[in-house]
Structure formats: structure tokens, C-alpha cells
Amino acid sequence: MAQAAKTPVTMLSGFLGSGKTTLLRYLLENSKEKVACIVNDVASINIDAKLVRNDRNRARSDQVNTTADLADTIELANGCACCNLQDELFASFEQIMALADKRGEPYARIVLENSGVAEPQNIRDQFNEAMAAGHPLMQRVELDTLVTLVDSSSFIKDYSTKLPLASRPELGDGGNMRPVVDLLVEQVECADFVLLNKVDLLPGGVEGEALEQLSAIVSSLNPLATVIACEQAKVPLERVFGSSVHKVVAHLNIEGQHRGAVAAARAAQEPGSSKQHAETRAAQRFGIKSFVYHRRRPFHLKRLQDTVLRWLPVTHNKAVEPAAASEGDSPIKTVLRSKGFMWLSNKHTTAFYWSHAGQHFEIREEGDWWAAVPDEEWPDAASGQRGIILADFQPAVGDRRQEIVFIGAGMDEDKICAQLDSALLTDEELAVYNTKWSSLPDPEHEGAPM
């Protein structure tokens, strides 16, 4: 017997007020398909029960009052599909599927509406982990599309702030000390579609330069996404929610997302590519471009701190505040966003992740380099992941590398690279490093270059 098709899940992200509920209502009012909803921002749609309304209720009146009048809706009692609430989140999906089974009519799609401060990357990871663990629910549903809504009128303000979420309750209840800009960037980058809502509130509206600039910035932050400008969250539904839509990011993890960003930045610099032409137009008008810094030796931590990190985070940049920006004493000050993997000389096995956006900068541990991971802990060959991992390997160093994507306005790539190069180990220091770690060789990996 053929396995039943999985029900696709669309996840809506974005700060409170960005238009998630408006989009959801627009979908439910205009879709010809049977859609179910799991919601977080309960108060905004006036839902007061876990399973509200059914088909007979909806047929009873032409007057639509809440999202729940339009679809079978489940609310998350704790109001957030956070990383520590996987059991409740998946239980909500199981309730939806049980309801479909009872009626003998499957849903065409399930829409998960996140709270304003939910982290889409964490929720995507929950689905990936459940799939890898063989969770029974994953035989019936799959995360299909990630959609982020952005309030176009407040994007520049939110990107430029250094305030934490806790100080901005209007963006969503339950915010913590995470910087606003850090979550904003995650929402934009962890999306297959970025909907620039409320464009009518921008100077010049849909025909103005402000929208063109915002589109260029968002497209640079997430080159894998389709960016759509809209008013009142009205978008071509088949384009965003259709079964044949182009979606990539929903099926990636952070490592795959990074590879996609690197590939897009490199493609943009290839003569004759369509990406390169779009990049040139943005660069000519606003000076926005991207490049990849790639090296195969570690940073000297103290020199990195002295020559580069002291200039981060960038308090002003030309992409979002052209009148106030100044290059100052460092070319790093022209950077809007930078992200990627780092190799530090004080840790041989640990990969670090460099993340800078607006006035926020951090370096965090991101697990071990694959070279240091025993072969039996690698993904199995059937998954296709092994070849992707080995593509990053070089003799002696494995997948250890500096691979940082830089996005900015008026950037001088040569100067930025020169400043970063000055923080790399010298030949003499590298010889000492290799001697130090030679007593702890990496595990052997079949197919790795020697």
C-alpha cells in the first residue's frame, strides 16, 4: 500500500504587529483548501477554547469574527512554540491529525503561527530532530515552508537598536534579554518567503526608494528567500502557500543555511550570473554587496581581539543609516551583517560561529569540526550528507576553516580581508600549533583527502 502523503506545515514568524494574523485570516478567507491552524498569539484572534468551531459552526453564519470561525484551530496553552515545548507543540499537531482522521478528510495544510518572540530556527530544529529520531508524527506531517513577515515601517529602527526584547513588549510577550536585532535577523534569514508588509507606510510607498533599499537589504540578508512587498499582508496565495512553491530553507539546518549563503555570495561575484547582475544593481544604487572571507589557518585570538573585534559591533553603517555612517578607522565599520564559521588557535576541535548584525556581535561555540568527530557519529552515506561534509575537507586540516560571509554598504573587501589576515597565525606560529596538536590526531574518515 502506498504511503499517504504528508500534510505540509507552513510556519509564520515575525514580531507582534508585523501582520501574521492578518495574513492568516486572508489565507483562510480566500483559500479553497481545507486548512488547520495552531496559534500562539491567542489574544490577537480572540480564541478561548482549544478546539473552537467546526464545519457546521462555520456554515451557520456568513459573518466571520475570528480566525477560529474559519478553520479548526488549536492554541498552545503556554503561548509559545519554544524549543523547550516540543511535547506540547507536537501534541497539538497530533490533535489536528486526529480531528482529520475522525472526519475522514485530511487537511491540505497546517499553519503554525508563532508568537512575536518565537525563534524559527529552534522550531525548525525540533522538526529535524524528530525526523532523525523517527518520531511517528513525522510520518504524517512535514515542515514545508517558512514565512516571515516584516513590518517595513519599523525595520530600520529595529535593526539599528541595541535594546533587548524584554524592553520591547510591543514586539511580543515573553521577550528575554536577547537583542531585538538578533531575533529580527534570525526571522529574516530562517525563511523561504520574507513578506515586506505595510509598505504603504514607507516614504514614497510602493514606488519609493525606501522600499527598493529595504528589498535590497533583506535580499542580501537572505539570498535563498523570495522577497515580496505587500500591504495588509495581501499576497498571491498560490505563490506563497501553493504545493509547487520554491522552498529551501525549511529543509536546512544552520550548517546547510550557511552553505547556501556562501554559495549565493560566491555566485553573486561570478561574471554573467543573474545573481551578479542583481547584486550590481543594488551596489550601484545603495552600495550593498557581499563576499566570503575564506582561509585555512586559525586566528590568533589576542590579535583578532586587538585588530578586528574591538571595532564590533558596528554602531552605524551605510546600508541602514547613510547620513550618520562613517567608515572611521576600520573597514569593518561598513559591515551590515557578517556570519560564518571560525577556527581559533586556542581550540583545535571546536568550531566557532561568528554572528554580527547591527549593534549586536557574538562568537559562540557551534560544536566540533567534523574532522574531530568519530566516523561512526557521522550521518550515514544514504542521507547524502557525507559527501557534502567531505567537500569542505582539505589534507591535514579537515574542515577547519575561516568562512565568514560579509554583507554591507560601501565595503572595501581588500581592506577587510587584510585586517582579518593580520589576525591569522604566522607560518612560525602555525608550526608551533601543528606540533602542539600532533599528539591528538583526528579520527580517520573514509574518503577524506590525506
UniProtKB/TrEMBL annotation:
Q: Which GO terms describe its molecular function?
A: hydrolase activity; nucleotide binding
Task: Spell out the InterPro entries in the cross-references.
Answer: CobW-likC_sf (IPR036627), CobW-like_C (IPR011629), CobW/HypB/UreG_nucleotide-bd (IPR003495), P-loop_NTPase (IPR027417), Zn_Chap_cDPG_Synth (IPR051927)
Recorded catalytic reaction(s): these are: GTP + H2O = GDP + phosphate + H(+)
Q: Which residues form the CobW C-terminal domain?
A: 288-424
Checking CDD domains in the record gives: CobW-like (cd03112)
Q: SUPFAM superfamilies recorded for this chain?
A: Hypothetical protein YjiA, C-terminal domain, P-loop containing nucleoside triphosphate hydrolases
Q: Which domain of life is it from?
A: Eukaryota
Could you tell me the keywords of this UniProt record? Chaperone, Hydrolase, Nucleotide-binding
- What family is this? Belongs to the SIMIBI class G3E GTPase family. ZNG1 subfamily.
Q: What is this protein called?
A: CobW C-terminal domain-containing protein
